[in-house]
Amino acid sequence: MKLSRSVCLKLVLMVTTWLSVLYGWAQTDTDTLVHVDSAVHIYLSSSDTIVIHQTDTVLIVIDTASSIPAKELRTEGEMNPKSVLKLISVGKIIWSIIFFLITYLVIKGLTKLLHILAERSARYRITVKGFIPVVRILGWILAVYVVVGGVINPPVETLIAVAASIGIAVGFAAQDVIRNIFGGLIIIIDRPFKVGDKIEIGKYYGEVVEIGLRSTQVVTPDDSLVSIPNGEVMNQSVSNANAGEPNCQVVAEIYLPITVDTGQARKIALEAAQVSKYVYLNKPIKVLFLNEVHQRRSYLKMRLKAYVLDIRDEFEFKSDMTETVLRELINQKVVQAEDLY
User: Fold this and answer.
1) CATH for 248-340, among 3.40.50.720, 3.40.190.10, 3.30.70.100, 3.40.50.150?
2) pTM (2 d.p.)
3) In degrees rounded to 5, what are phi and psi of residue 218?
4) What tens digit of pLDDT does each residue of 203-251 get?
């Protein structure tokens, strides 16, 4: 019976205390947590009231408006306006700007050095240029880590809160930008193509000169620089002509009369490809014949397929093979000039 009375007394006291706390909250706007440990939680409200929460007993409310200054109840880890201002002080902003500027110059110098080294060798050009986007990404990640963790050095709680706020704001305001950034990271990790590859995306075909966080830049055969957002790159089929190798296959198509001697034409085509200064002889050369009808007239389409030594000479090689084959076909009287019209 004594135990029941004790329990009832504690319950009444807890309910009374909670009602007092709720009344205090109704009279104030915010409460500040000034002390936390495994057993006792202490809160300081804007009305100078201390609320002590002891987990194994009850809540006790003590009025200290005239006895205990609020400054004496602050703990070391508590955030206040002055500590927030210290996080964004002028000195830290200046040092952050200086460090980011140094990072930009270092990354720019390293990428320029890699470009110079890559252009010295056609064999290793694509391999060396493949490190350029990796250097950019790792460089900026390291810079942000040093500035946030070393220069600004905010508390973990503040960092999480700011990151969450920025994430929500950016998520709503810059969805396309985020999609392009994630697309750029996936391209760098998955590597469907690298800097220096010849790719075809949609209606654009050319050499990849840069893979950035926002877009991929391609130089077309007409020497036009096209920037394709990475989000669109990830949503389209990508055709890679060389897949990281310095050589790629080139196809020259020549229309011949249906009565042509295919054996002689094949021999001339093979020799024309073999003697070209652009040919890569370590891979096979093939000649195929297809029948096509145009304006009710049959033609033989000869497809001469060979590999160019350097992908940058792709169109020069194609032109060289076409000119040599046509000239030899006419000179050796395999076809007549009027048959090619």
Assistant:
1) 3.30.70.100
2) 0.56
3) -130, 135
4) 899 999 988 888 899 999 888 999 999 988 888 889 999 888 889 999 9
